[in-house]
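Could you join me in thinking about how sequence relates to backbone shape in a protein? To get us started, please write out a protein record for me. Would you write everything just below, so we can both look at the same thing?
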Amino acid sequence: MARSWFSDEEIAASLDALAAAQLEDGGWQIRWRRWAPGTELEARPRVTIDALRTLRAYGR
């Protein structure tokens, strides 16, 4: 819905940054404070799935 707010160059740069943030194990880090030991373990799969879905939606 908000795609029209951004230029193609801005989208490409954001997608490049997202792809570059992928870790060696294939996942992505959570981007919020880890307030308990299990926070990252529970949330990281969802962050990874969201990143993959975004990249796939743009043919990456």
